[in-house]
């Protein structure tokens, strides 16, 4: 039997310990969501003996007329899908230009992207609020789509530019010799080769937009326009807080990003490797 080195054993124990610590809040969330409020209040979520499990919290969270997760899901999808596709399409073209062409003020424009990436969201709220008000897009899902799409352009351009830099250019040069234009090269060679990076940014951008609470809280006023994160927030009453209902709504809110990462995991890892492979 092979002897386990002490360093490997210690690393394994630490890794499992961290995994357990990180998993405990999620386990508690699931346990609370599956048990009646009164039972959790008296016994605590960690008490298993005599526990009564039910799906009533999930049913109530999904279709309650006051705080409907179903309505929040629809609004979140309306916002998230175009806020993911639009910036990726625009940023891919911009990243290709930064990676392959030389033009005036190129370095200054790229530095501007880095500055935008480092800017906290809170700094942009006031000017964005008045801008959306002037455009009659305040309290409209279209306005939130515009905000998220604009905010994602900088980091997606930076990400894809670095990935494009790592791609070999022999096939592009051969295509130019055969008479292909730059748009043809971009669409038929660069984009197919960049599928891992595109899947990576799609997963990250989708998750960020779906999980957003701050911008949605600032720019959406009418309850019928609330995205899923705001709908979960409305489950907290002024005088009563049903932890089971709130936990069920939180699980509904995190379910879509979890499924997305599970489906795109191999592309996400390949994209990150490709991004850092240059040099």
CATH architecture of the largest domain: Orthogonal Bundle
Overall mean pLDDT score? Answer: 84
Name the CATH superfamily classification of the largest domain. MetI-like
The radius of gyration over CA amounts to 24 Å
Outline the low-pLDDT stretches: 274-279
State the share of residues found in helices, binned by percent: over 70%
Number of strands: 0
Order of helices and strands: HHHHHHHHHHHHHH
Find the structural class using helix and strand composition: mainly alpha
CATH names the topology of the largest domain as: MetI-like fold
Strand percentage lies at under 5%
How would you describe the overall organization of this protein?
This protein is an all-alpha fold. The chain folds into two domains: 49 residues, no CATH class; 216 residues, MetI-like (MetI-like fold). It has 14 helices and no strands. Helix 10 packs antiparallel against helix 13.
Give short descriptive properties of this protein.
disordered C terminus, mainly alpha, 0% strand, 2 domains, MetI-like fold, 75% helix
SSE layout:
Layout: H1 6-33, H2 37-43, H3 56-63, H4 69-100, H5 106-118, H6 121-134, H7 141-166, H8 170-177, H9 182-193, H10 195-211, H11 214-219, H12 228-233, H13 243-263, H14 265-276
Helix pairs in contact: 1-13, 3-13, 4-7, 4-10, 5-7, 7-10, 7-14, 8-9, 10-13, 10-14
């Amino acid at each position: 039997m092979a002897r386990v080195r002490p360093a490997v054993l210690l690393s394994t124990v630490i890794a499992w310990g961290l995994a357990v610590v990180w998993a405990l809040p999620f386990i508690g969330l699931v346990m609370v969501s599956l048990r009646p409020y009164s039972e959790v209040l008296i016994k605590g979520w960690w008490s298993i003996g005599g526990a009564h499990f039910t799906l009533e919290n999930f049913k109530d969270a999904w279709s309650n007329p006051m705080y409907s997760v179903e309505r929040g899901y629809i609004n979140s999808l309306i916002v998230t899908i175009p806020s993911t596709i639009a910036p990726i399409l625009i940023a891919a073209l911009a990243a290709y230009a930064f990676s392959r062409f030389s033009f005036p003020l190129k370095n200054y424009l790229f530095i501007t992207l880095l500055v935008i990436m480092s800017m906290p969201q809170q700094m942009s709220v006031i000017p964005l609020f008045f801008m959306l008000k002037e455009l009659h897009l305040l309290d409209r899902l279209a306005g939130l789509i515009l905000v998220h799409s604009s905010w994602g352009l900088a980091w997606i351009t930076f990400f894809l530019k670095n990935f494009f830099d790592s791609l070999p250019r022999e096939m592009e040069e051969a295509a130019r010799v055969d008479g292909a234009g730059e748009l043809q090269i971009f669409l038929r060679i660069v984009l197919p080769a960049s599928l891992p990076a595109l899947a990576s940014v799609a997963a990250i951008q989708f998750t960020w937009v779906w999980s957003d609470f701050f911008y949605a809280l600032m720019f959406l006023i009418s309850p019928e326009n609330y995205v899923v994160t705001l709908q979960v927030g409305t489950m907290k009453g002024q005088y009563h807080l049903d932890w089971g209902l709130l936990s069920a709504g939180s699980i509904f809110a995190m379910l879509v990003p979890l499924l997305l990462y599970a489906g795109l995991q191999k592309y996400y890892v390949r994209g990150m490797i490709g991004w850092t492979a240059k040099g």
